[in-house]
């Protein structure tokens, strides 16, 4: 008989995310072990508890979910957890990173765009491209072959992100752009057919006039659900709505796919014990939905 499906939640926040706990149960986890305030130096013991208890053939029924609001902290926990698995002896469990929902949100945003554009030929602008979600959106788009402008209020910050993505995605077509002034924003929008706004909550990154002036725009995706929204004139619930000739998505419009991706990714963890689900792997799951 199969062992019960145990999901071990490693959360860097003081309280483990209730959202992630609910999704875990809805995705099929039968037991949920939640650890909060997890620091990298505590991960070894937690991972050893996971891999040394069941035999290798049963380890697919144990998995790890890394969450918390701090994406950099989550990345550190993921890295540490992978380091303490012992694949040579089959002693490993599958693991997924979705700190702050960054991977599932980025995957859902790029999927929304892919429904309407051939990403391989897309000319994209990622506003707020220096945040954890924006960086992942830019990376996924670059990997799909899109020409990507990564935007920041400070071009130097965007340059830093482009350099990091170029290391991860050989041959990526990337350009850092500053969008701190209306003039810079208009130049960054020039010739773009896809704009994703991944700016901080409650900040307008794309005013209506700038959006409507961009004649080449075909698809616009806003991920900010907190008013004022990231794209003026795009509603939070838009899901493929037409605004001024462009197909538009708001954060709640993308949220439905995000939830499906999150659940599917957790369920996938229990299919084998050798998976590491980060942005790219989660995007592949989104593509298969
Ligand atoms: N639906 C979901 O489940 C879900 C999940 C996660 C995130 N989100 C949303 O996705 C968006 C991106 O998330 P995130 O965590 O990556 O965002 P973030 O780190 O808070 O911000 C992203 C970028 O926005 C820019 N920014 C910050 N404050 C700004 C201001 N006052 N004016 C203009 N630009 C500003 C910064 O870029 P520069 O300093 O380089 O300009 C920053 O790197 C947020 O709106 C978030 O709420 C949704």
In words, what does this structure look like?
There is one protein chain. The chain is an alpha/beta fold. The chain folds into two domains: 6-97, Rossmann fold (3-Layer(aba) Sandwich), CATH 3.40.50; 105-254, 3-Layer(aba) Sandwich (Rossmann fold). 39% of the residues lie in helices and 20% in strands. It contains ten helices and twelve strands. Strands 7-6-5-8-9-11-10 form a seven-stranded mixed sheet, sandwiched between helices. Strands 2-1-3-4-12 form a five-stranded parallel sheet, with helices on both faces. Strand 3, helix 3 (71-83) and strand 4 form a beta-alpha-beta unit. It is elongated and about 60 Å long. The structure holds NADP nicotinamide-adenine-dinucleotide phosphate.
In short:
This protein is an alpha/beta fold and 289 residues long. 39% of the residues lie in helices and 20% in strands.
Task: Name the average pLDDT.
Answer: 97
What hetero molecules are bound to the protein chains? NADP nicotinamide-adenine-dinucleotide phosphate
Q: Quick one: overall form?
A: elongated
Query: How large is the count of helical segments?
Result: 10
CATH topology of the largest domain: Rossmann fold
What is the top-level CATH class of the largest domain?
Answer: Alpha Beta
Give the uncertain stretches in residue-range form: none
Query: Roughly what fraction of the amino acids lie in strands?
Result: 15-25%
Keywords:
289 residues, alpha/beta, Rossmann fold, 2 domains, 7-stranded mixed beta sheet, 5-stranded parallel beta sheet, 10 helices, binds NADP nicotinamide-adenine-dinucleotide phosphate
């Amino acid at each position: 008989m199969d062992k019960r499906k145990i999901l071990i939640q490693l959360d860097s926040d003081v309280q483990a995310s209730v959202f992630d706990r609910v999704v875990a149960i809805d995705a099929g986890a039968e037991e949920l072990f939640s650890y909060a305030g997890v620091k990298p130096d505590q991960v070894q013991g937690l991972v050893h508890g996971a891999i040394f208890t069941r035999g290798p053939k049963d380890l697919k029924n144990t998995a790890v979910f890394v969450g918390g609001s701090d994406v950099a902290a989550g990345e550190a926990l993921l890295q540490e957890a992978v380091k303490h698995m012992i694949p040579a002896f089959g002693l490993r469990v599958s693991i997924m990173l979705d700190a702050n929902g960054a991977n599932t949100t980025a995957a859902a945003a790029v999927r929304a765009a892919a429904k309407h554009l051939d990403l391989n030929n897309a000319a994209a602008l990622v506003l707020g491209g220096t945040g954890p979600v924006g960086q992942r959106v830019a990376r996924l788009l670059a990997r799909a072959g899109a020409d990507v402008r990564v935007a920041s209020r400070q071009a130097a910050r965007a340059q830093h992100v482009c350099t990091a993505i170029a290391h991860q995605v050989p041959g990526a077509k990337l350009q850092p752009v500053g969008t701190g002034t209306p003039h810079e924003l208009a130049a960054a929008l020039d010739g773009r057919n896809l704009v994703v706004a991944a700016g901080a909550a409650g900040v307008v990154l794309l005013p209506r006039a700038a959006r409507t002036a961009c004649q080449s725009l075909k698809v616009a995706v806003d991920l900010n659900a907190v008013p004022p929204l990231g794209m003026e004139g795009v509603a939070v619930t838009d899901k493929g709505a037409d605004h001024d000739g462009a197909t538009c998505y708001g954060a709640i419009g993308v949220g439905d796919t995000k939830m499906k991706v999150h659940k599917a990714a957790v369920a996938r963890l229990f299919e084998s014990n050798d998976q590491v689900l980060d942005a790219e792997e989660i995007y592949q799951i989104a593509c298969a939905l």
